[in-house]
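Reopening closed ticket. The problem is back. First fold of the pair:
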Amino acid sequence: MLNKQVILLVGAARHSTNLIANLLNVDGSYEDSVEPFRLRGEAGMFSFARWKYILSHDHDPKLLKLAEDILTGAVENLSAEQDHASRVGLLVQELRAHLWLGWLRANFPEVRIVLLFRHPLAVISSRVTFEWRSYLSQTLSQAELLADHLAEFRSCIEGARTDLERHTVAWCIQHYVALRQFTRGEIHLAFFENLVRQPEELQRLFLFVGRPFDHHMSLATQRLLSAKSIDNGVSHAWRKHLSSDDVERANTILCLFGLDRIYGDREIADVSAAEDIMRN
């Protein structure tokens, strides 16, 4: 049993997870912990390594103890300036949790999990531009991950040759596997573009995590977005970097996973399309 309210905000690299965390914690009510599972993995605990899949019924006591320590603040990755005693809970940002979210919810059901999406072509374009690794080999080497979620996509994963293809497949794996570990309502699906353009989406997010979203909170979040120069062109930059052939190839891969319907040709996500991929 955790001794405080915990929000786990799960994004992927280049999803602007930090901005959404700042919106959630705009009044400073929560302690901030940024990627504590990654930091502990680098210290020698490889159970939460990048792209690691953990079965929901895995009851490894060392794994459970480490997660409990992180979620209770016993393993702190918190700003020294924070007044911990005045905070109502813990807000954890994590970029590598997609493949073990089901495990975490099975063992810590009181944690409120928010899964953040951003337009895949915006993310893929950014990752290709910065020449990031895709880490696909780490998915193919995990027999349980393939058997549980990815068997039908193996040829697609193995056939990814270009950087664009590999990063598109990586984005699909992260989000498809995360969605397939839950039924509707168990976690909150948040979409970056919707959150920054539609105040009612912020209200839904706050409602899920148990935060009030009154007039003052609404004004505070809008001031933060204005300060960050977030506008209606937030998702358009990728169009300058991807050719029509790139877009067609990426959409073909997204379609194989059934993830093309979330955004399609729109800049705003279709929440129900993502929910349709979740377990019935």
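Second fold of the pair, where the issue appears:
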Amino acid sequence: MKICYFDAFSGISGDMAAGALLDAGADWAAVEASLGSLQLGATYALEKTKRNGVSASKFRVLGGAQKAHRHLPQIEKIIQNAELSDAARANSLAIFQRLGEAEAKVHDVPLEKVHFHEVGAVDSISDIVASCAALGSLKVSEIYASRINVGSGTVSTEHGTLPVPAPATAALLLGAPVYSAGPNVELTTPTGAAIVATLAKGYGALPPVHILAQGFGAGDKDFPGQANVLRVLIGERTNAEETTTVAILEANIDDSSPQVLGYAMDRLLEAGALDVTLTPIFMKKSRPATLLTVIAEPGSVDRLAQLIFAETTTLGLRVLQAERRVEARRMEEIETSFGRVRVKVAASGSFAPEYEDCRALAQARDVPIRRVLAEANHAYWSASRGGAKS
């Protein structure tokens, strides 16, 4: 499986995404042909340049009705009539749908009445279609992104001067891990935010891959002390240890009953928390309390935080970022006298019977769970030493 990783340490825009993917080896002739079929009256160029000493590709859109304002149905018709692959067409339409929903939320208007300004112009349409066509050329199956550097300060728009991140950008990146570093300018545009928000399966550290190619897409400006580029890494997924960025939510709670906390733990796990623990602690003045710790994917922080506030008495919580390493593992099945049990097997060779399988068999056969666990462990050990696993 081929992975594309957007390393947005200096933000992301549509032209940076297209330039980086083309720099990584996407077929320029094929992408240019796809763009020509949009019939926007523009021509396109791919130039080699440098940003703070880093060689990068700059994707340019030349000519066309750059100031044209379009509604979503008009843009969808342009894309539908173009000669694009099914995946490039579907991704382009999905990105504009996501953009439209963000704009509708920001301006409090129905989706069909959203009037695209900057993102309805020729360059934005071309940036998005070029990026989607380039991803198809590279045969990318999954897309991931780093934390997103959004920049800071203000930006001039059709609606006047707005803070960075612009409202549409912030709406698109709800739940995504973002930060601000570097020059006092907009680093992530609504177009760039829409691309990652729509296509990325997750944010954080680079997934385990064999790197096949690297590309850099240049932004418009050249900053001293920071290369204004978007990097993409193209790789094949591996079975190496997985390293991911996770969020840790913590709260010290000294006025909730054990029943309430137990229920909150169940709700958090059902809502997608990776792990939840309750630890007895002592707070100031020697008050006994409980430390609630939740490990979560970065994109689920807001949802789980709301659940913590709803289901516990805490009035505040801490959100930390951490690196999580998970050893490559697989599931196998083993036959026992009580029934079939799944066994989780790590790449190192360690293994453990699946608790829920053993629990269900213990209840169904009315035997102690430790007997089921012991037999499952013995059965897998014997089979792995030379016997046959079912």
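Update: turned out to be a display glitch only; the data is intact. The chain has a mean pLDDT of 90. The chain is about 35% helix and 30% strand. Please close again.
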